[in-house]
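Sample log: PLP-dependent transferase.
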Amino acid sequence: MTNRRRRGKMADTTTRRPEEQPDADPLEVKSCGVVTTYPVYRRSTVPFSSIREIIRAYGGYCNSSGKMVGVDASYGNIAAPSCTSLAEDVRAIDGGKYALLFPSGLLCLTMACVTFCDAGSHILVPKKAYFKLHRFIQESCPRLGRSVSVYESAEDVPKMANEKTSLIFIETLSSSRLIIEDVSPIIEFAKKRGIVVLCDNSCIPTVFNPFNCGADIVMYSLTKYFGGHSDVMMGALIVNDEGIFDRLYVDHRNYGIYVSSDDCYLVQRGMKTMRVRMQQVQSTAIALASRLQAHKKISQVIYPGLPSYPHREVWEKYCRGKYGLGLVNLMFDGNYSVEEVDRALEGIDTFKIGLSWGGCRSIVIPIVSKGSLINAPQAGIDGLRVYCGLEDPEEIISSVERALSRLP
């Protein structure tokens, strides 16, 4: 009997009735006390106190203006506090109005190809974009009836766009080549043609805000700096325009896209320290880049914090001296085989070999100028991309120097 009373009381206190607060979310949970970390709300089935309540949750609800708002909160965890609170935190990073969460950053990108591109549509993708996006456009887009063109720079976009172009991808800073894109000309062209622009800003959150340049959608891989501990995968799309959000939300709902409440907790935990971590990895990256410029095995160091950065003018245009970047590209003095680079890295425990970045641990991955990593056995290795983690900076730098000294 006691348990029943408690459940009944909880239903009364956690439900906002429309006649009392027509603009409020009817499923908003009131705080039951002060906490420093948001609790995890796990759920699949959602209990309701009345049929009327579940009907309203299923279809959204009308505000005082008669507009249908809210999300389908009748089942699953899309409207669970763990998910909605994270979406709110992510939305606020660039001052966006809406945010949707996805199980991975890649799904954010591929879903945009579904939402904004009908069969027969044309998509523009930068050559330096995420390699798994390129795999999707090569293997899946033709089957879906979407044609794709790959552009090298902003100057190519007006030449390659056509009357069927409905979506343009931009990667503000390439995580593989560390090339910053001059985004304004692309966005200005797209605005005139009514083309949706999605900007992948995963490399430089808190440093550059694509909405300031007029981007329609900002995408983040929350797996990287946001999560920050290499133990969660998630992505987010942030938008300002209600019409664009509505289109995304319909497909997000209809494709059954959910994220785990536990994963949301991990990302929120990471966001509490994101700015501090980014300051630390930036400090180490600048120190590494500065010291290795004169190394005999290095022909070029690519890092935005250096005066020698080849795209410095564009960087200063958008980022105004900010860096917040833990990635450094070290180009070798020559081409080395996989076996030679493996021997150089063997036994160095300060960093691991891996594809991702943004966590606490330092990571290196080979750079292959002619093709992708899979071509390394034939094409050879031309350098290393180093992600500087949170280890002691001197230990990271000396470990890289030790590896370089082992190259023949």
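Observation: Residues 274-406 form a domain with the Aspartate Aminotransferase, domain 1 fold (CATH 3.90.1150.10).
Observation: The chain is about 35% helix and 20% strand.
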